[in-house]
Amino acid sequence: MTTPTPIRENDDIRAAVRARYAQIAAAFTPGAASGCCGAPDEAPAIAALYEVPDVATLPAEVTGLALGCGDPVALARLEPGQTVLDLGSGGGIDCFLAAKRVGPKGHVIGVDMTPQMLDKARAAAARLGATNVEFRLGEIEHLPVPDASVDVILSNCVINLSPDKPAVFREAFRVLKPGGRLSVSDILADRPLPDALRAQADAWASCVSGAIPVADYVAALEAAGFVDVRVERKSFDETPLPDMTECCGGEGATLPVFSARITARKPAW
Ligand SMILES: C[S@@+](CC[C@H](N)C(=O)[O-])C[C@H]1O[C@@H](n2cnc3c(N)ncnc32)[C@H](O)[C@@H]1O
Q1: Is 158 close to ligand 1, i.e. is its CB under 6 Å away?
Q2: CA end-to-end span of the chain, whole Å?
Q3: 161 C-alpha vs ligand 1 centroid, how far in Å?
Q4: Widest Cα–Cα separation across the chain
Q5: Are 130 and 96 in contact (CB under 8 A)?
Q6: What is the spatial distance between Cα 141 and Cα 169, in angstroms, rounded to a whole number?
Q7: What is the pTM of this model?
Q8: Which of 112-123 are b and which e, b meaning 16 or more Cβ less than 10 Å from the residue's Cβ?
Q9: Does the beta carbon of 140 sit less than 6 angstroms from any atom of ligand 1?
Q10: Ligand 1 atom with minimal separation from the 155 CA
Q11: Number of neighbours of residue 38 by Cβ within 10 angstroms
């Protein structure tokens, strides 16, 4: 068994997360199985994860690199002409689904801090001829997006990876237009995870040890200014997500972490 890499600072977390997703993107070949945060083989099938039927129309180079834990696009009820921002867009699956819904008068921006993921997403956009989608390099704690310019924010299994979730929610609030909405799938916890686990960079990068309790997540959203915050467990919360049974020295199967849908709104005034 390999010795877990310890975390000393937030930068250690970001480096471990970036390294994991750079490696996944670089090693990716279309047709290979993928899933929640990069767990191979056993991850929930894409059709089980996504409620929107048109996910089946996307090419394998996009669906094979889907690393989410839910379907924030179905949750978002997007409309033509909207501007949408995806936090941690990865290979771009939710951006491409959103792009179809907002249409030619709408615009979708994906932000990701891993250049190798952006390369994959941009190549897919070019091949799909998706002209209303762009991918920007950046951290979700420091969004490269102007104030009050976005109608809906999406995110799929990313915010748990951030070492500074209050900063993510402050930035999300800043870039949303008044009345704008947040529609997120993420990994949350029933109770605080053990410090020893939270200090493991690999478990953090696998979407496990960065999960925080529901009450803390809600409090951070409300502190940023969001209202109407709702958290709903996903249906497959009865059993641990497959990669969580594998990780963390076998401890993963008993961890109180689960996939959830989160919605919130920036007040209109
Ligand atoms: C689990 S994958 C999810 C990708 C995509 N949302 C999906 O559903 O397929 C996490 C992605 O978030 C990106 N990411 C993680 N932390 C980030 C941060 N602090 N800022 C920007 N991107 C981040 C990673 O580079 C990776 O592409």
Answers
A1: yes
A2: 54
A3: 8
A4: 54
A5: yes
A6: 8
A7: 0.91
A8: bbbebbbebbee
A9: yes
A10: 6
A11: 22
Domain boundaries, the chain: 10-265
**Atom of ligand 1 at shortest range from CA of 38:** 1
**pLDDT tens, residue by residue, 108-154:** 999 999 999 999 999 999 999 999 999 999 999 999 999 999 999 99
Q: What is the pLDDT of residues 42-70, one digit of tens each?
A: 445 787 788 888 898 999 999 999 999 99
Q: Whose CA is nearest to atom 14 of ligand 1?
A: 88
Helix then strand then coil, % of the chain, to nearest 5: 40, 20, 35
In the reported structure, the alpha carbon of residue 89 is separated from the centroid of ligand 1 by a whole-number distance in angstroms of: 6
Single-letter amino acid code for the residue at 40: P
10-265: what CATH class?
A: alpha beta
In one-letter notation, the amino acid at residue 48 is A
What is the side-by-side strand order in the sheet with 133-137? 133-137, 107-112, 83-87, 150-156, 176-189, 257-265, 227-233
Ligand 1 pocket mutation pick from 21, 117, 156, 186 by most atoms within 8 angstroms of CB: 21
